[in-house]
Amino acid sequence: MAKGPTPAHGPLTGVRVVELAGIGPGPFAAMLLADLGADVVRVDRPGGSTLGIDPAYDITNRNKRSVLLDLKSGEGPDRVLDLAERADILIEGYRPGVAERLGVGPDACLARNPRLVYGRMTGWGQDGPLAERAGHDIAYLALTGTLSMIGKPDEPPTVPANLVGDYAGGSLYLVVGVLAALQHARAHGEGQVVDAAIVDGAAHLASMIHGMLAAGSWQDRRGANLLDGGCPFYGTYATSDGGHMAVGPLEGRFYAEFVRLLGIADAFPDRWDLARWDELRAAVTARFLTRTRAEWTEVFDDTDACVAPVLTLTEAPHHPHLAARSTFVEHGGQTQPAPAPRFSATPGSVRRGPARPGADTDDVAADWGLPALRPTTHD
């Protein structure tokens, strides 16, 4: 009996994506496309990820299907080209030249499918003096100047996990790039290569800061500016129980409410008196240390003072606002961030848990019309 049409699961329903398995920004970008409804087939390699994460918990592989192919074998590259021929987008995250040496580079794939969008995710980019060098998120942030902005002035720069480089400067720019190229391919029948480099994205993220620097309203040093912790009313403060509160009342009316509720409204009438910023910071610090995080949260609840408790990863899903919006969802017993953003007509969802390497080969072979994907059996 023939299968019925695949139900819509987001605005990218019907878009086919091939992901050549890697680590970091490539899988996250492919997850975002899958969350938006794309049919993402991840080509896993024998032996699994070099990071050794249990595939059952790797959320970045949710909403995908996996086939297992050895690209160093005789048939592996041919099967990838078969997939590319039927795909709209292909994503790879190898060092420059590796995909070409494996026989699955842009020229080979576009020869089979001239409308294909070939997305390349690297740290340094496809060219330049460092293109062949190994690297990770922290190094890319370091060279772009982005890392130098994060942290306290008298301490080394703070490492922002891998969120700013890998995911913001990498994955999100790759997704924007391949979707823009897909629009072009559908309008003009012409595929192309998208070179998404974390150094490019991380630099681009700081566009506003570069403008402020040129205008003289940003100092090129850490912890001395309005948005980098240098301002006493834009930062974090410890509470009496070891928790923290985040403070950000930049606008005048919000600041007035903040200092009133904090109890220092009469002490600092001019918040733009930079000569007294250290004194203001000390007063704010002292006040927050007089109560617990929960007590200060209650003080600032239902106000426009722009103050919020700093929650941990395990606390965040239980916050009333996030719970009401279902910002976090549970699937297969695992709590995880829900797909974002949201769509009124084509909502996305977590449809399936993390893809297990090779578990979906038969289904993909049938759905994509590729019987050769099935492993050869010998009696």
Strand content: 5-15%
Instruction: Please state the average pLDDT score.
Output: 94
Main beta-sheet strand count, sense and barrel state? 6 strands, parallel
Name the helix and strand elements from N-terminus to C-terminus, one letter apiece.
EHEEHEHHEHHEHHEEHHHEHEEH
Give the helix level as a range of percent.
25-40%
Q: What is this structure's SSE topology?
A:
Blueprint (H helix, E strand, L loop, with lengths): L15 E5 L4 H11 L3 E6 L19 E5 L7 H11 L2 E4 L5 H5 L3 H7 L4 E6 L14 H8 L18 H26 L3 E6 H8 L1 H9 L19 E4 L5 E4 L4 H11 L14 H12 L4 H8 L6 E3 L10 H6 L2 E4 L2 E4 L23 H7 L12
Parallel strand pairs: 1-2, 1-4, 2-3, 4-5, 5-6
Antiparallel strand pairs: 7-8, 8-9, 10-11
Question: What would your notes on this structure say?
Answer:
Strands 3-2-1-4-5-6 form a six-stranded parallel sheet, with helices on both faces. Strands 7-8-9 form a three-stranded antiparallel sheet, with helices on one face. The longest helix has 26 residues, at 163-188. The two termini are 29 Å apart. Mean pLDDT is 94; it is low at 1-6. The protein is elongated. The chain has 13 helices and eleven strands. The protein is of the alpha/beta class. Helix 2 (76-86) packs across helix 4. Helix 1 (25-35) links the parallel strand 1 and strand 2 (39-44). It has helices spanning 25-35, 76-86, 98-102, 106-112, 137-144, 163-188, 198-205, 207-215, 252-262, 277-288, 293-300, 320-325, 361-367; strands spanning 16-20, 39-44, 64-68, 89-92, 117-122, 192-197, 235-238, 244-247, 307-309, 328-331, 334-337.
